Amino acid sequence: MILGVTCLLILVGTHLLQHSGSKDLHKGGSDTSPKERQRLAANANQRPNDLYRDYKGRRVTPSSAARKDSMHLTWSYTPPVVFLKTHKTGGSTVQNLLFRMGEKDGATFAFPHYTYQFNYPDKFRADFVDELPEGSSNFDILCSHMRLDIGQLRSMMPPNTIYVTILREPVLTFESVFSCYTSTVPAFTFAKKAAAVEHRSALSMFLESPDSFWDPKEPRDGLAKNPMSFDLGLDDQQWDSWQTDLTELEETFQLVMIAEHFDESLVLLGALLKLEFEELAYVRLNARSAHSLTPLDDITKARIRAWNRMDVLLYDFFLKLFREKAAQYGLERLNRDVARLRASADRISKKCVSRKEVPPGELEDLIRPLQTDSATVLGYEVKGNLTKQEQGFCMRFVLPEHHYHAHLYFQQYGRAMRAVPAA
Q: If we measure between CA atoms, which residue out of 100, 109, 108 comes closest to residue 136?
């Protein structure tokens, strides 16, 4: 029913988004379509080789600087990218900027055949992906929720694909997962019912004896223990392969972003994907209201870390690697670029947003985040005194993930998303 309501809203909202356009607010926009860019490129400087073709085989327009120096031709394009969107780590914010980037570039998205996730919590398979649209030779961006299977991903994405994911401090991740999925993860639901009888906190009840609620054979309990490791396809029951798994993940992902260093992570992401600071600008999406946050004392934090020790190892390992990547980038340069990113984000946010942290009941349907019955998710109100072009950009800037997902799916396939068939 949620999918049906969302798709209905998207059919209405898509008209506004399509007619307001996806032009860049910060650059004043461009009326040049992907086909028109190809035509201009073909006429710009005819040469008998492939120097004027991007990674998809499309002809591209050299930069003005490159045209002045035909001996040193350079072009900027966005390579294919897979973003493994882990639960409750800030992934929705990253997904939004990838959606904006892909829509602007006319990218082909790899979308789930049904709804918003790739048959989660099953491990990803290539046949979970909807068909390749007519006229596309390959998928460019995959950024919907999945449980990782590296081999299956590589079998369907181009060989030059960049792989990115994001991790968050395990204690904060688990608290957020528990808060948002209390009613959908069976282990959490059982703990909530037991806590209600004793008039206690559901989280404290669960952590006091987690094994009495968690069933390792229940797929829907995957997020109830080491949720980040679970999303990355790791097996909680096979500790012998842990070091091998870490090595494979390190070799697969060019960047593992760290939520506690979000802006620094975005700068490194921008360097990988050749994005401008304005393209990396963001507002934090899927943020919970203050009353949905659970205060954690030291005992609770220790219990969370003990229960999620694989996530602790995973996070500590990639935090160390992240610091090494930051040092390689240059800390002084990184701090300077973070300041530039924040300035761009602040400027665009002031242009677009009239109110932040807005309760769902005060938001229009199109920009109201999906709610759960255990947490309140806040959103943003877009300013009303905008031009049509500005409104299109600003709506996308704050658009909740399910709304944007459904909009892009409709735009790519000309139909609404499919619901999961009844069993």
A: 108
